[in-house]
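SAMPLE LOG
Freezer: B-3
Tube label: C17
Construct: single chain, 188 aa
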Amino acid sequence: MMDFKCVQDCSKCCIEREYYPTKKFGKVGVLILPDEKEKIESLAKNLHLDIVILPRIGVSYEKSNGPAKILAYQLMGRESNGNTCPFLDTESEERSPHGGYKCRIYESRPLACRAYPVIEPSSVTLDHKCKFCESCANTATNLNQELESLAKIKIKMETNAPFIWRYATGVGDKSDIDNINTGWILEI
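STRUCTURE (predicted):
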């Protein structure tokens, strides 16, 4: 058994963004809960960073033109293709304890970052794109903090609203831009 820890020189989860749930929705950013949004904006302002926070998930009780309430936002990457968290310090020589780029807000990072690499708590599913998980996923232990963070996210996103909306970011690789939408899309 092996305790989860970041792999030497890896900042992959902070750099690479993916299309989710399909390419038409664009690349997603880091999930930010509504009660985290103001704190993240304040941290960016204090660090003199320009950030983009877009909606991510919304809900409504009636079929309409968009959500009545936003359950989650997303912090977009600073590159035009959506990659690289704006809080990742890629300029300085300072490194994180595992040798990767240093997170400027590590102690105040969002719950989604604290939960990673756990993506499903019930049967403890780890993200296969994580370098640690590539080789140690079946033996990973001591994921209590990550599981607790993911549980908090799930509780805050619970809803009985019948209509779920997902925001298409319009962000992606140049070769994909024609296939990416922008704005709210009702999930069916």
